[in-house]
Design goal:
By secondary structure, the protein is an alpha/beta fold. About 35% of the residues lie in helices and about 25% in strands. The protein binds zinc ion and fe (iii) ion.
Length: about 240
């Protein structure tokens, strides 16, 4: 494992992720909502930034980019299809592309639903999944542009990733997601245990992420939905929760 991922809290409930690749010493940041907390984390990690990975165009995922570009001149990576509404891209990627990150590679997965141009990244060397606002712990993103069917298919693309994959999502929504999940799956013991662990983590002021994909497979009602219609009903119920 050469890549590690550390959450950087931003705004009220966003996480940007600081990635370090130990062979080359390269540093990347994912979805910087703000520049100041990012700069503090980058300086603590050695004072250089090689790459910015973007999952989608929302302000709470890109607003930190201009100041980071001006200070560190990293390569900015994002979806070619959304280049018109993302910060200026140096590397415009497509589904299945692999972006070099030192000795590691970040594979691009198209995951429309939250927005139509939303992408996720998977770094096999470190088993790191960066789902942005597609999947959260015990939840999924709101459907601002895509359909429930789109989102169901997008989350199904995570199916071939190992249980030990670390899910590094874009928001700390875990407590409220757990409350909703318990209403639809009250007898799920893994979910009950995870909900209790989340309460303890949050009262200690700690992030609930990353979480393993195996843990999500046992507890996330959206990932457990057997078909798109069940998924759609769950998403509607959560919107009104
Ligand atoms: Zn978003
Ligand atoms: Fe967001």
């Amino acid at each position: 494992m050469t890549v590690t991922a550390t959450p950087i809290p931003m705004l009220s409930d966003n996480y940007s992720w600081l990635l370090k690749e130990s062979v080359s010493g390269k540093v990347a940041i994912v979805d910087p909502a703000e520049s100041e907390p990012a700069i503090a984390a980058i300086e603590a990690a050695g004072g250089k930034l090689d790459m910015i990975l973007l999952t989608h165009h929302h302000a709470d995922h890109v607003d930190g980019v201009p100041a980071l570009v001006a200070k560190y001149h990293p390569q900015v990576v994002g979806n070619a299809a959304d280049a018109h509404r993302l910060p200026k891209l140096d590397v415009a990627v497509h589904e299945g592309d692999s972006v070099d990150f030192g000795a590691a590679k970040a594979r691009v997965i198209d995951t429309p639903g939250h927005t139509l141009g939303h992408i996720s990244y998977f770094i096999a060397d470190g088993e790191i999944l960066l789902p942005g606002d597609t999947m959260f712990s015990m939840g999924c993103g709101r459907l601002f542009e895509g359909t429930a069917e789109d989102m169901f298919r997008s989350m199904a693309k995570y199916e071939d990733l190992p249980d030990s994959t670390l899910v590094c999502a874009g928001h700390e929504y875990t407590s409220s997601n757990a409350k909703f999940a318990l209403t639809v799956d009250p007898d799920n013991e893994a979910l009950q245990e995870r909900a209790a662990a989340v309460t303890a983590l949050r009262s200690a002021g700690k992030p609930t992420l990353p979480v393993t994909l195996g843990q999500e497979r046992a507890t996330n009602p959206f990932l457990r939905a057997p078909d798109a219609e069940t998924f759609r009903k769950l998403r509607t119920a959560k919107d009104n929760f």
